[in-house]
Amino acid sequence: MNSYDVAIIGSGPGGYVAAIRCAQLGMKTAIIEKYSTLGGTCLNVGCIPSKALLSSSHHYEEATKHFEDHGIEIPGDIKVNLEKMIGRKQAVVDQTTGGIDFLMKKNNITVYNGLGSFKDATHITIKGEETIEIEAKKTIIATGSKPSNLPFIKLDKERVITSTEALKLKEIPKHLIIIGGGVIGLELGQVYRRLGAEVTVVEYMDRIIPTMDAGLSKELNKVFKKAKCKMNLSHKVKSVERVGDKVIVKADNKKGEEVIIEGDYCLVSVGRRPYTDGLNAEAAGVKINERGQVDVNNHLQTSASNIYAIGDVIKGAMLAHKAEEEGVFVAETMAGQKPHIDYNLIPGVVYTWPEVAAVGKTEEELKADNTAYKVGQFPFRALGRARASGDIDGFVKILADKTTDEVLGVHMIGPRCADLIAEAVVAMEYKASAEDISRMSHAHPTFAEAVKEAALAATEDRALHV
To answer: 444 catalytic, yes or no?
Structure first.
C-alpha cells in the first residue's frame, strides 16, 4: 500500500494549490481527482471557460457596435461562428488543465484518477479504472461544489440547463431565460446577449448580485437594461416546463400576479451546493452540517483531527481564490507555521463588462453595525482614460471610518475593476486610510486614477476632476 504524509481529495484551485504548497514544505503528497482532468470546476466548467467566452463575445460586440466609432470599418457582415468560439474556449481549458499536470510532475505529486472515499481516518479507497487503497497521515478535503437547483425544476441538460451546459451550447439561444441574478447567471447572460440572444433574468430578491453593495447592484442593473435585457426582480419562480423546444417559466411578481415567460433555453443559476457525494466522511469521523458543508474550526480542521477541509465544501464565499488561500493556510498549518487569512479582505468579482469588484464592508453592513462612516465616490466618465477607450460606465466608491479615516470597504464597477480591486486589498491589509491612498501617485491617464479620486472624495470631499 502506498503511504503519504498528506492526500488531497479534489484538484480544483484549493486542492491543487494545497498539494503544491505541501510538496514545497517537504511532504510526500498525493492528489485524488475523480474526473480525467485536473483543475476542478474552476478550470474545466467554471472560471476559465466562462472568461474565455466573455472575452470572445466582448470582441464580437466591439466589432459590431463600437469599431466604427474608432474609425475602423469592416466590409461585409460580421458573423459569429459559435462552434469555433466554443472550440477556442475548450483549447484554453485544455492548455490550462495541462499546466496543472505539469505542476504536479514538477513538484513530485502523485496523481490518482478516481473517486476518493474514506475507509477510515487514515485510509482512502480510490475507485477508478481499478480500485486501490492508499494510506495518508493527513488528508485535505477539497471536493468543491455543484450547481444547486430548485426542487420542482427538472434539469434535462438540453433546454433546461446549468452553467456547465451553457458553456457548450450548439446554437445561440433565441430567448435565454436565466433563473437567478447572481454572478454566474449574469456573466453567461451577457455572453449570449452579446451574441444576439434575447435575455430575461428572473431574480427572487429585489436586486441582482444581492450580496454586494446596493450601489453596484443598481449600476449593473442599468447596464443590463441598456443592453435590452429584461430584468424581472422580486419574482418567485414556481414552475419550469419544457414543451418540445420551448421552455415555459411561471413566476409570481411582488404583487402576487402570475408572470409567464417563454424561451427556448432556461439557465438555472440559483447558486451552488457543497459536494461531498461518495466521500463516506462518516467513516473517518468527519461531521457534515445540515447545509451539507464540512464543519471546520479556525484551523480548518474537521472533527477528525488529522483531516482538514477547504474551499466550497466549507462555510464562506465560494471563490476560487478563497480556496487557494485556504489550501496554503492548511499546508503551512500542518508544517507548524502560523499563517492567517482575513476573510473580510478576500475580494469578490463579477466579470461582466463593466466589471464589478468589491472588498471589505458594504454600506448596508456598516449601517447594520452602527458604524460611523464616510463615502467617497468617483465616476469613470470623469476620467480621460475612460473617455479615450469609451468605457465610461461605473464608479469607484470608498467607505472609510468617519473618525479614523481607515478604509473599511471599496466597491467598484467599471473597466478593469477585477484588476483594480487588488490595490484596495493591499491598502486595507496595511490598514490604510483614505488619505493614504489619496496621497499616492497614480499614473495618468489610467483607470486606477478613479481609486485615487474616490479616496480624495472621501478625504474632505476634495476629488479633483468632478
So the answer is: yes
The verdict on domain 2-147+273-341 having CATH code 3.50.50.60 is yes
Instruction: Tell me what the mean pLDDT of segment 331-336 comes to.
Output: 98
Cell numbers of 455, please? 479616496
Report d(CA 185, CA 177) in Å as an integer. 10
Q: Tell me which residue has cell 411561471.
A: 250
pLDDT tens, position by position, 264-296: 999 999 999 999 999 999 999 999 999 999 999
Q: Give the pLDDT score at 352.
A: 98
The domains of the chain are located at 2-147+273-341, 160-270, 345-458
Angstrom distance (rounded) from CA 389 to CA 384: 9
Percentage of the chain surpassing pLDDT 70? 100
Q: Say how many C-beta atoms besides its own lie within 10 A of residue 84's C-beta.
A: 10
First to last CA, the chain: 69
Q: Are 44 and 177 in contact (CB under 8 A)?
A: no
Query: In this predicted structure, what is the pLDDT of residue 461?
Result: 87
Burial class (CB in 10 A: 0-12, 13-18, 19+), 64: middle
Nearest CA-CA partner of 410 in 378, 362, 458: 362
From CA 117, how far away is CA 135, in angstroms rounded? 12
Q: What is the pLDDT of residue 300?
A: 98
Using a 10 angstrom Cβ sphere, with 0-12 exposed, 13-18 middle and 19 or more buried, the burial of residue 367 is exposed
How deeply is 274 buried, as exposed, middle or buried, from its count of CB atoms within 10 A (0-12, 13-18, 19+)? Answer: buried
What residues contact residue 118 under an 8 Å CB cut-off, 6+ apart?
Answer: 124, 125, 139, 279, 280, 281, 283, 284, 286
**Architecture of the domain whose range is 345-458:** 2-Layer Sandwich (3.30)
Q: Is 280 helix (H, G, I), strand (E, B) or coil?
A: coil
Closest CA to 320 of 10, 43, 29: 43
Measured CA to CA, the distance from residue 274 to residue 396 in angstroms comes to 33
> Annotated catalytic residue: which of 59, 299, 444, 465?
444
Average pLDDT for the chain: 97
Reply yes or no on whether the pLDDT at 460 is more than 90.
no
CATH second-level architecture of 160-270? Answer: 3-Layer(bba) Sandwich (3.50)
- In this prediction, residue 116 has a pLDDT band, given cuts at 50, 70 and 90, of very high
pLDDT for 257: 97
Tens-place pLDDT, residues 166-192: 999 999 999 999 999 999 999 999 999
